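Notes from the 1:1 (GR / supervisor)

We went over the backlog. Supervisor wanted to see one worked example end to end before approving the batch request, so GR pasted a single chain during the call. The sequence is below; no edits were made to it. Supervisor asked that the structure be written out right there so they could see what the output format looks like.
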Amino acid sequence: MQSATLAGAFDELAGSYDHRHHEEIARALIAWVAPGAADAVADVACGAGAVARQLARSRPETAPPVLAVDLSPGMVEVGRARAAGLERATAIDWRVADAVPLPVADRSLDVVLCASSLHFLGRRAPADWRRALRPGGRVGFTLPLATHFRPSERFSGHLAPDVPLPHTAREASVWAAECGFADAASRVLVLGTRRVVVTSAREPGGR
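Structure output shown during the call:
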C-alpha cells in the first residue's frame, strides 16, 4: 500500500519535477563512481532517469542497456520522452517496478547507482544491491545532508527509518561500510541552498 501511495505522489510530480537539480546530482554521482563503458549498470528508483540518460549518451553501441527501474509509471513515461533523442533507442531498459528487489539475477551487475531515492527505499536496498553485484562491483548513491533537508509533509511520512541521513560525508561512508561495502568514499555536493552527500563503495571480493 505504501509503495502505491508513493508511486501516486511521484506520478503527480512527474510533469513538474525539478529535473535540473536531479541532472546535476546524476552528473556528480556518475563522475564519482565512473562506471566502465561496458559495465552492466542499474539506475535504481530512477525517477525520470537522469542517471540512465546521462550514461546512455556516452556508452558504445556494444554496451548492455542501462536498466532504469522506478515504481512510478508517470516518472518512467517522462524519462522515456526525455530520452527520445538518444541515438540508440535500446540504450535504456525502462521498467515500471518496485526497485527492491531489482529484477536481475544474482551477481549480474557491475554497477548500481541510486540518486536521490535511497532515503525512501530503506536499508533493504543496499542488501539487495549486494545480491545483484558481482564481486568487486561498485555502488554509488546520494543522500540529502541532514542539516539541509526539508521534506514536504507529504513525503516525510515515506522516509525510511533505517536510513540515517548523514550530517557529514564521513557519516555516509561509515554507514556504507556498516551495510557491508568496502572502500567507501563520500563528498558533499553543494547545489545552491541544498546539500547532498555523494558516496561510492565496492562490493567485497573480485580483484
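Supervisor's comment: Helices lie at 2-13, 19-33, 50-58, 73-82, 118-121, 124-132, 153-156, 169-178.
Batch request approved.
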